[in-house]
């Protein structure tokens, strides 16, 4: 039975829905649309514009690996306030971040579409710059996005950068400090296991961000986003062999895959790709001081990794009861 939305809804809520809808469209539909438009223009009288853009793409190809191209006007636009209010999303500070230092922030959990990570670190919807003055935030994402014509230029405006170590190293080596690189450490593998109410993190074998923090002497900041896993439901039935084969091939060839999930629609609440209106509270933990070690040993990496997992667990335990997580639930690392 389909549950339809009320006919008369306050304009504020309509605007919130529209902004989230455009964001979902941007990351799920816009990349293939940009590719189709770019190829299609080659067979029209406007092919020359494609040639000019191809030259620009060649000259600008390294920008996603060199700090991206943040646009403060776009990041501070009022639309992100509407996106924040849709859920709503809140950002909680538990400690100061020194603007003379650079930081690596592990963002957990990944969630289906990393909505919490994007809203908090790529926009001013939750007031990141006000909470952490002097800190310039970035967020890593898949490299494939930066090879999509037009789309790459759009996402760089928010501070999205390549997830390659060279990209992260470029930001962490900036003189003067004041830079924070957010990494959704669990990646696609964690997104595939996302379930409402689940607190299982893919972290035990993810140590690259620890090594980078040691190499650059960057502080490690644990971040846990309560509610990020509750925005979508996953299909209960097994998708079968054909979907698993398709998903495995997609991951092998392109480094991405598509989890089977569903949410609500725009004018009804039963099914669709819109996330549910469920609160997200992102808690930024106290930074771990990291000594600069240009050539860290595996033992040093392992030791810091264990400390990071412990601090993340402590952060979760200290705040879980405030955000409706049952007392008997704890973080699981795999």
From TrEMBL:
Its EC number is 2.3.1.-. Pfam families: DAGAT. Coiled coil: none annotated. Keywords: Acyltransferase, Endoplasmic reticulum, Lipid biosynthesis, Lipid metabolism, Membrane, Transferase, Transmembrane, Transmembrane helix. It comes from the Eukaryota. The chain crosses the membrane at residues 20-43. It is found in: Endoplasmic reticulum membrane. Belongs to the diacylglycerol acyltransferase family. This is Acyltransferase. The lineage of its organism: Eukaryota, Metazoa, Chordata, Craniata, Vertebrata.
